[in-house]
Structures are given as C-alpha cells and as structure tokens.
Amino acid sequence: MLDACTITRVTGPEGPLDPETGLREPAQTETVYSGKCKVQTFEPDETARESGDHVWVQQRYHLHLPIGVGPVNVGDTAEIIAAAADTQLVGRSYRIAALHHKSLATAQRLLVDEITA
C-alpha cells in the first residue's frame, strides 16, 4: 500500500446556523485511522440520482487498509492525503459503504462510495 488516508467519524451534531452565510458549522469528528491505504476498482459501478435540478453520481470503489486497523464503521469518511502513482487521488473523499470480513485476509477491503458535490 503506497497511498495514505485519514479516516474520520462524526461524533457530534453540526454547529449552529450562521445567519450571514446560511451555512452550518461542520459536525465534530474524530480521527479513527491515519496511515497506509490503497484505492482500487476493477469495474467501476456508478449510479446517478436526481433531486430537483441536481444530479448526484455515486461511484463505487474499494479502499484497502492494513489488517487490524480500526474498527472502521459504515458511514465513516476516508480522505486520501497522499498518492504515490496518481496525484489526482489526493483530496478525494470516500464514504465507507460496507465492511468486508473474511478468514485469512491479507488486507481489509472496504466498499466505499466517492463523495462528490
């Protein structure tokens, strides 16, 4: 695993609404893991959802982590902070969609969805 990521978990509610901007302060988070990872996909599987005048595209990937990392939960967010071969991965965020447990695993292979605006 040549890349690095930070996995965070929401631990508190969003902050109050700012009357000037109409935006809320981000929710409180804690870091669950920071270290080696690998983003992998063999056959990308995307879905498009429409709401109002906006279309959201959901792209499915795998995020590989070393054995023993975690516990990682569904809903946690992983952000790529370093990428050896593809610098375009840096800054991308993924939501943990499913855990993958098995006997004799050589890595944790989590299903993740890319978070896009």
Overview of this protein structure:
With 117 residues, the protein is mostly beta strands. The protein has one domain: Thrombin, subunit H (Beta Barrel). 0% of the residues lie in helices and 53% in strands. It has no helices and six strands. It has a six-stranded antiparallel β-barrel with strand order 1-2-3-6-5-4. It is globular and about 50 Å long. It starts with a strand and ends with a strand. The mean pLDDT is 88.
Specify the oligomeric state.
single chain
By secondary-structure content and strand pairing, the structural class works out as mainly beta
CA-atom Rg in angstroms: 16 Å
CATH architectural arrangement: Beta Barrel
Q: Determine the fraction of residues in helical runs and give it as a percent range.
A: under 10%
Helix count, DSSP H or I runs of 4 or more residues: 0
**Nearest-integer average pLDDT:** 88
Strand composition percent: over 45%
Low-confidence segments, given as residue ranges, are none
Distance linking N and C termini? 28 Å
Query: Element order, helices and strands?
Result: EEEEEE
Which topology does CATH recognise?
Thrombin, subunit H
Count of discrete domains: 1
- Please give the CATH class: Mainly Beta
Major sheet: size, sense and barrel closure? 6 strands, antiparallel, barrel
Give a count of the beta strands, DSSP E runs of length 2 or more.
6
| Neighbour order of strands in the largest sheet | 1-2-3-6-5-4
Overall 3D shape: globular
